[in-house]
Every structure is written in C-alpha cells, then in structure tokens.
C-alpha cells in the first residue's frame, strides 16, 4: 500500500475529527503514511491533533499525525493536499444566508449570492494555497472539499499548474435520498449522476438510465407519485424527477421551486448556519470528552457531519495512490466527457482514478430538459471563478448578475454591496 504524506488544510475544523476517522478506517490502505493537520486556530488544532492520535492508537492505525499553523511547513514533501476550510467560519455563512433573504432572494452556502461570496472568500485562500504548492510540492494533487467545490476547482484549473480534483458525496447520495423519500430501499438504486456540482442529474447510459432493483426507476417513481406522497418536499423532488425523466440533485429545488423555497426560508426563524452555530459548542465538548476516554469514539449526533467525514476524498486518494483503477464521481475539467459543456469547464462526472491521475470518462450528455439551466450555471461558474481569482468589483457584480437566482442588475448591486461590506476582511481589496 502507498506510503504518502497528506496535508489537511482546515485540520482544526469541526469536521476534522470525523475526517481523520475516515483515514483511520482505511489505515491499511495508507499504512506508514503521514497526515499533517494545518489550521489557523491553534487551540482547536491542538485538540484535534491529540484526539486524532489517540483514536489512531486505540485502533492500531499505522498513521503518523502531526499539526502546524504554518501552511508552507505542512506542504513540505506532500503527495496530496486535502483542503476543507471556511473563511469567516459559520458566522460568515450566516451572513451569506441572511442578507439575501432580507432582499427577497435565496441565500445558501453554494447557491445564489451566498454561494458566490463563499466562492470569493474560498478562492482568495485557494490562490495562496496553490502558489505555495507550486513552490513547495508542485507534483502534489489538490483534493478540494471546500465549497463551492466546482467554482474553486474551476479557478485553480484555469489559473494554476497544480493538479486539482474537487469532491462531493452528492452524486452518490442524491439518488439514495430520492429512493428513501419514495419509500424505496436506497441500497437498490443505481444511477450515473453528472453535470455540475450540486446541479447533477442522472444520465442515460448504454445500459439505460437510473435503475431500482434492476428495473427502470422513473416509472416506479411515477407510480409512487400517482399513489400519493404526503410530504411536500418529497412530492416536489419526485415530481421534478418524473417530469424531467431524470433524477435531480436536491439543490435543484432552489431553481425549479424558487418561490416555494424562498417562502420556506423566510418563514424559518433561523438559517442553516445559525442552526449549526448553536450546535458547535456541543461538538467541541464531545471532542474534549473523547480526548479523556480510554478508547475515543465519535458519536454521530455529537460530531459535525457524522462519524466519517470527507470519505469520498479518502476513497479517491486510495484509488489514486494505490493505483486501483476505480471509478468515482469527481469534479474535473471536462475534456470532452460531457458534450454539453466546453472542454475547459469543470464538470461533475464519473472518472477513472489510478496512479496516472483522475481522468473523466466520455460519451455523456445531460438530459435535454435541463440543458438550458445547466448551461447558464456553467457560464456563471466560469465568470465567478475568473472574478474571484483576479477580477475587479465590476467583474464580480457582472458574474453575480449572471447567477440564475439573482438575474437583475439592481438586486445584484444591492446584494454585492451589502455582502462585500460584511465580508470585507476576507476579500482582496480589488473586490471591495
């Protein structure tokens, strides 16, 4: 098995203990490897490092775990870099969600104006990260888990020589979630999801489309819909799948049910980030308690994101470094894989992963009814990536105006001004 060095940028986050748990669960595939946790919060970084070492020792994992606040030191000699960070923390995400709602627009971590400002902040950090990688570990691969993963990957792929692949569990879990909402067994679903991150749909392949227990899934969903589904959101999601003859990512609700989602978000007293902020102290309390335990065990309800986090990143690293020739859904430059996008556009598509890298499989098209929306989202993705990397305030507002959840110039200007003021300390001066 491969013996590698991985730098984990964001290694002092609430997700970090669960991410290390994912490495420990696959310790046999990384025997003798080193994981360097890097973060700017020294106190939390130290806690995560000590807890990680104790979890590894308790489970007999042959992994060396260290920590540093010095990013360049963490990158020294690395084979891979895992990035999962949140500039401004959940407090910044709360602003991304709350400010658009004040103006009758959807605010969300990866969608709309909220997602756009998360991209601006994330890429500001990513630019420095890949510059450091180019100087210190130019042959390392960047495994990005920082949202919006598609826009971050687009910026890095366009403007850096560093190999980058962005990852998300969405293509794996979206079909399972639809099955569960319809009262079906998620384990019996088979679907190839592709398009853009958080905007993927099930594809027609040579062997057919989405299947349930070996049978076409869409007619089964249509029957379930005809029989009646009581839950409003489940009915909307399943009706969208049946109408478009394709399984959608759950984030498509913001576009195809925009008014309904806006009403729901406005009626809710707190945003998603505010809910998370309420729970964050309990996560750290749990981690401190487990640090004192003889055999530390992460409890799903007390750990951010559950027990095992960023598993897809660990799986893809395993396939790459151990030359496993496995197929995983990832976000990479299209290179002709999906006919509906330019070759340079970062798309979410099945990829063959081995020691030669992460290469998209070809021959796909997105379903005809959704090509228009995905084309618009793809153009927005490119404009946002360019503005975040090197653009001005003018270019950034133009990019935000192109977002399908913003659309009008007055709204884009208003949202940009308020969000830029809120996030000023996390943005380059050219974007003020």
Q: What does this 3D model show about the protein?
A:
One of its GO terms (biological process) is carbohydrate metabolic process. Residues 194-406 form the Glycosyl hydrolase family 4 C-terminal domain. Belongs to the glycosyl hydrolase 4 family. One of its GO terms (molecular function) is metal ion binding. Keywords: Cobalt, Glycosidase, Hydrolase, Iron, Manganese, Metal-binding, NAD, Nickel. The protein is α/β, with parallel strands linked by helices and 432 residues long. It folds into three domains: 5-89 and 109-168 and 278-318, Rossmann fold; 170-267, no CATH class; 374-431, no CATH class. The chain contains 16 helices and 14 strands. The strands form four sheets. It has a six-stranded parallel beta sheet with strand order 3-2-1-4-5-6, sandwiched between helices. The protein has a three-stranded antiparallel beta sheet with strand order 7-10-11. Strands 12-13-14 form a three-stranded antiparallel beta sheet, covered by helices on one side. Strand 10 (211-212) and strand 11 form a beta hairpin. Helix 4 runs antiparallel to helix 12 and helix 8 packs across helix 9. The termini are far apart. The mean pLDDT is 96.
